[in-house]
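Researcher: Before we compare anything, I want clean individual predictions. No alignment, no superposition, just each chain on its own. First chain goes here; please echo the sequence and then give the structure tokens.
Model: Echoing the first chain and its structure:
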Amino acid sequence: MPSPQDHTTEPKLGDSDVAIIKELLCDDDMHTSADSLAKVSTKLKETRSLKQTVEYANWLGDDKLLARLTFLERLCDHSQGKLALVYRIVMDNSVSPVSIRDVARHVHRLGLTRADAPASDDQKVLDGLRKRLFVSEPTALICGFVDGGIIPLAPDLREHVLAVLDYAIQISFDISKQPARVLLGDDQAFKSIPLNQQSEVKNMISAMIRLHLLVDDPDNIAVLLSHQHLSAYSISEVPQGNFLQIMKSSGVDAAAADAIWTRANAARLRTQEVVIEGLRGKHEIRFNGALQYKSQDSFDWPIKGPVDLSKLFPDLDQVVDCCDCCSLTSPAAYFVDLLYQLGKRAIDQSQPSDTLLDKLFSRRPDLGDLQLSCANTKVLIPYIDLVNEALESVVAKAEPKVTDPYNEDDDDDVDDDETYIPGQNTNHDVYKNYIQPLVFPLTTFPYNEAIDSIRTCFQGLGSSRNELLTIFRAPHRLVPKVSAGNPDILSIAEVIADRAASAEYLGLTADDYIAIVHESFQTKEYLDLIKGSKSNSSVESYRDLIGVKTPGEYWGYPNDQIMLSEAEGLTLLSGQFLPRAGVSFDETLNLLNTGYFNGQLAITSGSEGKEEFSGKVAEMRLRSYLIDAGKSSGLTATQCDDLQAFLRLWRKVGWPLEDLDAAVVMLRGNRPVGIDPEIIDGLAEIKRISAMTKLPVGDILPLWGDMDTNSTSSVYARIFLRQRVAREDDIFEPDKEGKYLPGGSAKISEHRQIIRSTLRLSDAELDAILRSAASWIGDSLTIRSISYIYRVSVFCQVLEVSPVQYIWVSSLLPLGFNIFQTPRVTRSVLEQFQQLKRLGWSIDSEVFAAGGIMDGTGEWAGFDINTAVRATADIVEGNSKGEPESVLLSLRDDTKPGAYTREQVAIVAAALLGTDIGGEVERFIEGMCIAYPGYRYYQREALTAIPHPQAPIQQQVIFKCLCTQKSLSGCATKSNWQRTITVEDGYYI
């Protein structure tokens, strides 16, 4: 006989688990053979699987051992593999259970209830154990609950109920599978109970049997009984909200209480339907067989063969087994009855007229053709999809009626559990041909249904379309074959990929981008190149090609003339601008106060020459303001275009208006008013940095420019214009002209304390920041200098280093490198440092590896050969062949403390790093090649082990030398650091 096959997919038991099971098998009462027990123990140790061991015991034919193993396997499964809990249950001498039924019956004595569970057991595991026992042995578990007082009953009633339930356990009666009348009608079960008490006992047992069908957690039976709920009917009589509140007060969670109430109502409705069917059958007319028509010769029967209901009524074939489809109270029946009732009611009762059904069908004729199928009845469709279906039909046919019915597929897969189906009848042509070309209202359009669907899909998958564009970025695919030899085309393709990625990260579609920037992802140069090297289109033809519209069209006007009209144009504040822009009056005031428009727009009175406002918004006008002339004039098309572009960008980005304004003004620099692709790229980078650092956008904007002082919610106002700061020092308040820190007359040294306290800097940290820019800051307190101090402190906060170490960070970058040149440069630097941090590199170790150790004054200090070898071994993580300390000690020359010969250094390097890399390291350590900061190349005679103050970045050469020879384990930034190029016998950094 072959032995059972091994199962390789089961979780393996540990040594401690195997030991527990062996101990549980060694039961003196089993009287099993020592040979069988030894074989089973060996098999258990080999397979480390209870299931395989049970199969093996079955193969051995030892029934007692098999029963024991089967019990342990089932108990282990009920306990979710917690063998410590299994051991405690089985070894309980007060019960000594030998079956799952014994465990369920004595659940209270085994300490498995909520009330008396030991603190060492996980309450969730015990809850799960009871629920599994409730499924497998419901009769025994309820009996145990009664015996343990979990279901509280009067003493006499408890004794009699226990007697009946113990009898039920004895005859293996399952209350969840067998009719209750079998047990309640068994005289043997009630023989010990007085006749006058049997009715009460039967009622209580019936109640427990009914309630156990409504709950998943057996503990909830006691809760329901405590509130006098003895049936589904009594539960359904209570309003849902009241029932949930009552259950919550008794410790039952909302989901469980809701499930109980829902099942109770379903049971009540099912009972009512059974009663209705019974009454219908009672009054049904039955024809006597003698009255049946017997002469069939005159009929030409269309049905061949035996006649049955499915042949007489083919449409019923799909619904004969569906209680809803056959019920007069089903949703489909209600729908038909509703249409029937509407057909009986005239619109005008005083004279002949159409009915309400006629009126409904004039708008929704599709409802009359809707199939009364299971799918249409049971499948729930969100209201938004139903509304979209109706609106799509109206838009597509340009008439206010829906003519085509949308029926769900009625197949065998539709069941009661299918509760939601997303829209299956989307008319994509409507969105492509009618919706996508729209650009107004600007708060909603442009809308691209395809892009929106893709974004929603990726969001549901835990990703984003931006991540897709980043991972599968392939600019070379944009290069046409005919232009592949052009050296400029690939760089232009990179620009296209950048534009698309930036727009997507900001939530812009291609049509949004065109409306805001008046350029497409495809640049004018790109389109010229793919059309031919001699083609050089004008800006106007480029805009026509990509579909740029006029400012009037973007504002929803037929043309620019109407938009600029004083009578019906955008200048009418309440009648035109506010509703078309979708902004409030307060938001309009903030918009006009932005640095983006720089005072070029103003709100004036509607009456010419009137100096005072009447206070009515309806009389206010939005006009262009000439600052130099000090008077207003009509809006220009350019100003209206800038307005719609800024408003669209604001809505899409979702930042506070003040933050977006400060960011756009900072990114624009000295360029003309407007939003260009460089600004969009910069905003995307700022948003990425905000997400990376988890800092608000407004807090990081001073990284690339002076602090914004144009808003009361700016970072400058929040830090320096607080009441506490103003009370201590009013230097940060605006002067009479509204300017902040003008002229540079204020000194940092005179206001040092308030700067330190507001920016939370120590003296050493403030000194370090000022020292890093001493060449231009000096002691002058200006917006520029205070912005620089804030900038460095925030940057150091992001890197989680002290501002004292800022000079260290700067030393790791090329001479003259500006970290804050652009947001993209800043993000690149932050990503490199964060990648190194994830690999376990601190700023100290990076500085050491790149150039040596810095002391407290910011000066470079040397290092000895021991430190060099150890650092090198640490860098080549996972590649060392021995411990550096032990190798060095084995080669130590006691006659020359702290020094090693060149031969010893070569042995150490080879032992740690291998012959090839070790040789390169040995050449460097011995001073045959040295690099200094600033990408300069030098050569020098051999170095000794004495610290050398003029060789500050030896470790950088070690690091980069190794990068060129052997990949670093887990180093994701190898390409960023690998800048070493071998030049004869030295290295160029």
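Researcher: Okay. Second chain, same rules.
Model: Second chain and its structure:
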Amino acid sequence: MKTFYLIDGHAQIFRAYYAPFGAQLNSPDGEPTKATYIFTQMMLGILEKRKPDYLAVALDHGDSSTERRDFYPEYKANRDSAPEDFGPQVRRIEELLGIMNIPTFKVKGQEADDIIATIGRLLEGEEIELRIVSKDKDLHQLLTHKVKMWDPQKDFITDPVNLLEDKGYTPEQAVEIQTLTGDSTDNIPGVPGIGPKKAVALIHKYGSVAGVREHVDELTPKMSENIANQGDLFDLTRRLVTLNREVDFEFDLDACQTDKVTLKKLKPRFEELGFRRLLSRLDDPAEASAEEAVRESVSGDYRLVNTEKDLESFLAELKEIDFFALDTETTSVHAVDCELVGLSFSWEEGKGWYLALRSNKGDTLDPDAALEALRPILEDPTIGKCGQNIKYDLIVLRQAGIELQGVAFDTMIASYLLAPERRTQAMDALARDLLGLQTIPISDLIGKGKKQVTMLEVELDKVAEYAGEDADVTWRLYELLAPKLESEGLRKLFDELEMPLLSVLADMENEGVALDLERLEETRVSLAAKVDELKSEIHRAAGREFNIDSPKQLSEILFDEMNLRVVKKTKTGRSTDASVLEILAAETAHPLPGLILKYREVNKLLGTYVAPLPEMISEKTGRVHASFHQAVAATGRLSSSDPNLQNIPVRTEQGRKIREAFVPGSPGRILITADYSQIELRVLAHLSEDKGLREAFNTDQDIHTFVAAQLEGIEQDRVTREQRSRAKAVNFGIIYGQGAFGLARGLGITRAEAAKFIDEYKERYPGITGFMETCVSEAEKNGFVTTMLGRRRTISEIHSNNRNLRALGERLAINTVVQGSAADMIKRAMVNLHERIAREELDMRLLIQVHDELVLDAPLEKVEEYSEIVKQEMAGAIELAVPVKVDVAWGKNWLESK
């Protein structure tokens, strides 16, 4: 059967516009081209790889007036206007499609979805399979055995069968589901409290919305009330979500034939736009780029090793290799608690070996015997190993009794250093973006959701293919990224800081932290009571009960009933986020905004930390093992998860109570906390060479009081608390590139007063002003900035024609150099301290890193000696032109050690 690929134009252009591409693209003339480039390469990819018989693009007309808006003016009224550089790229794409002779369909007053629905109807009598290039759920109602949806990013086809498997409903039920849920993205009203899962369950049980309404007495009182209140809105919602299959426009099937497509005429436009990498594909469409939207599947020779004879043969080859890629397959993402299922290896592109250690689906090697046979190689520091997030494999193997040595390369970290702004450094994404390869999704093996199984339940041949591919792709990434680190001057940072830090973090994760469960339970009870107390206060302040966690209901209270100012709008309506509530709390004497802020803070602590923490305790160790991430934050800072230790507040009583539950691992031991004092300002003083700022630190003065006194022209002993707070806000605001607007809002002063204060600050400290200008100049010249140790961050926003984006780029340039250098400093301190602990065999262990703070476990009798060692290593990590001050304390829990 012939195929017709019909592009959901605006949806794919938006997807291209917001794609994590690494850098903002512009033509040589400065025209923004990111969406144009990615959309165009997707079209070329479809022609090259999918080879459709027919091809066309459906577009929204662009006129704000549509049939749906005519009868429901609120339709899509909550959406923000498109970015100013989006419209020109849509027009440029239409121009390129015209040159390629690819038909575009757009009809005044109609949307692309309705045009697609109509084309689907017009093709019903043809022997043609329509493939809609989109992932929009609104199109599910169109699916048949001849109408399918294709997601080019995931190379995934959605048809009626897998729609039912994945979403739980049929195309015929799609409109019923949406009539219940509505669509907040398009401002289509739905029944409050009914999300997709609940809607699916209701339609399965009652058959239709009408059936649900007939059996409303069988539902919960609240749901019954909500359905009753929906009333006539059901008819409105159904009309809004049902696609129009009778759009009146001229459709010529023959004009959509791909044999009419012309590519060579694109050459002058590609040259004009700077699309050099796409030029060669106009002459030879079969030539694929590593960046094209449609990817090749990985192909290779992946061998299953599950007999003693196979193992002997494999080991004979491995012993001749002095560097290889390694990956582990396990039963869980939790390295400490998972079970090792197998190991895969590669040292040549297109080849991989999978050693099966455990499986419920076939014969495997004896795990203990196989690991013993591998031990001499895995524990040999002279044999190099590389991996993708090899920290995980290091911990897994340690739990299995193997101390992995010779860890020399991590492809995730290498990619991160080369492009820290990349949205994800996951292997699948790197394979797609850097190698042009589509890897096997893990969900293809273990499934999703309730049906998910572990690797133990997957057929061995499938595991071998998947694991062999992982090792092979890791090897290919190594061969690509290693020379790039050299050419970009990042190899020293990689070898001397990031790779040594990997081992430090592995030890920290493996060690874990003990919790005082009794103290945690006391905190849980206290916070739960506080939440109930705040709920009552909020309902009294509002004058009635309502769902505090519902932004919609809260916005009705604040803006409709209390008539407070609408500060900003989002795609889903009037915003009630923290920044809005803070402004409202400052503007009005009414207590409600402030109470909501307190409620959210306490409720978040309860739901994010206090309640889940006991569930995070490992059954194997009795401790919490947080994951520390060194390839996430673009500035170089570390982050953590499970739990996110960085987000535990330290300035509130409730946050401090959570820290109180983190305790030493055994009796007779104590926690040491070491914290850099104002390290980012000290880094700023070093980099800016500002005499005034350096004087303050060199004479060990309170930096904020010092600055306040200079700006106010008074003695330090006359500085008021308000004056010091204002100076502190400017000191830290400078680091984050804060302008007059942000400072004014933070201090509750006028914008003019804030601007005057900033001007006086810059005049008093000219070295800082010069430093900021240098950072911006470096970003403009090179497209990136560097930290003290040579870490890079691309600042693509600096060349944007959008004034706000360009201002953001300037702020990022300044902040990255300062904050990134401070991040380098604590990383260097961690590596040095870890090496000293090992070298001198100290009975001390690193447990936690949070921002500028380290937490260690040590014996009580050694606390003063060890505290001095920690202070030495942190203060001497990187030499600055001003003293580096480290505050050290200790106690029987994390709170007391502050």
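Researcher: What stands out in the second chain?
Model: The first helix runs from residue 9 to 17. Additionally, The chain has five domains: 1-165+247-291, 168-242, 296-488, 515-624, 639-649+659-690+765-898.
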